[in-house]
Design a protein that fits this description.
Blueprint (H helix, E strand, L loop, with lengths): L3 H12 L5 E4 L15 E4 L5 H8 L4 E4 L11 H21 L4 E5 L27 H14 L5 E7 L1 E3 L9 H8 L5 E2 L3 E6 H14 L5 E4 L3 E3 H12 L6 E2 L2 H7 L1 H8 L11 H4 L2 E2 L4 H7 L6 H14 L4
Parallel strand pairs: 1-2, 3-4, 4-5, 5-9, 6-8, 7-11, 8-12
Antiparallel strand pairs: 8-10
């Protein structure tokens, strides 16, 4: 509830008239927004099963949003602890507590890569190369949920999330680079972006409209990285990128970094994640649109609201 997506899910639940309780780490309780004062707060952690048991007691449904999004090699252990074992604890507590349904926040990282010039969907087989802890832990946690017995489960798979209220500032660097003209060249791939507010609404819809055992991609506009940077330039009065880097050049540039990674030199990002930069990661939301009434905003609205929020905090 104190994170990016979690806070928006809490707002969407309250707006829909639901009574909401939230498991919040004790150190994060002071950061709970006053706008969420109607939410009952239970101090705890997904790594501490007794606290989860107390939080889910008497609940009809559970929405599991907690997770670690990181791409540095050193984050692998923490990601498995939170993304996989934390999910296991939440699932077991919900089942033991008689919860009817659990909605689990997964990711398109748990789905395979689109074919060249194609768009992936919920049936696309996982085929990411080994060595991507985030993808692997999201895949493994989703498998736990989808194979669960004794409780209805629904998985949502957001694509790249943007929007206002990005408390962790994960996309801030990209906005700054574009605004100040420091990204003249961009990688040749692309991505599917989504709006955090639309994804939050999909979580609320999944409480009643999702098919048990199903997964739903919650994506949005498909943009090349050049188009994404151009959209950000438009909402920040920044500089548009001048050209795309050749894919071969991007891959070649990683060779010396890969050698350093193999001998244990710490790097800020795993070299395996370069696959994202040369991949056209386009994912279809048709299933969510049909089943959940999912709607997607335009890229300009989403990115514009994100930029304005960053500016309002003095970050941009």
């Amino acid at each position: 509830m104190t994170g990016f997506l979690g806070s928006h899910v809490a707002h969407a639940l309250l707006a829909a008239g639901h009574e909401v309780t939230a498991l919040v780490r004790p150190q994060s309780i002071p950061t709970v927004s006053p706008q969420l004062s109607a939410v009952g707060v239970f101090p705890g952690d997904v790594t501490d099963p007794p606290t989860i048991d107390r939080a889910v007691r008497g609940c009809e449904a559970v929405i599991h949003v907690a997770g670690v999004v990181a791409f540095a090699p050193g984050a692998a252990e923490r990601q498995r602890e939170i993304n996989v074992e934390g999910t296991r604890h939440v699932l077991e507590a919900a089942r033991a507590g008689g919860v009817r349904r659990m909605v689990h926040t997964s990711s398109v990282a748990a789905i395979g890569r689109p074919a060249p010039n194609g768009v992936a969907d919920e049936e696309t087989r996982y085929d990411w190369p080994p060595g991507l802890p985030y993808n692997e832990t999201k895949r493994d946690s989703e498998r736990l949920v989808r194979r669960a017995e004794g409780i209805e489960t629904v998985c949502l798979n957001p694509s790249l999330v943007f929007g206002p209220g990005e408390v962790y500032r994960r996309t801030l660097t990209l906005f700054r680079l574009v605004k100040y003209g420091l990204l003249p060249l961009v990688p040749p791939g692309g991505t599917t972006l989504c709006d955090v507010r639309d994804v939050a609404e999909a979580h609320v819809a999944a409480l009643t409209r999702g098919e048990p055992g199903a997964r739903y991609i919650t994506g949005g506009p498909h943009l090349t990285f050049r188009q994404l940077a151009t959209e950000i330039a438009a909402v920040t009065n920044g500089a548009r990128p001048m050209a795309e880097l050749p894919a071969g050049l991007v891959r070649a540039a990683t060779l010396p970094l890969a050698a350093l990674e193999r001998v244990g030199v710490p790097l800020p990002v795993s070299i395996g994640n370069v696959a994202y930069l040369t991949n056209y990661g386009y994912y279809s939301s048709e299933r969510a649109i049909a089943a959940l009434g999912y709607r997607t905003r335009t890229a300009s609205e989403t990115l514009g609201d994100a930029a304005r929020w960053y500016a309002s905090t003095g970050s941009l």
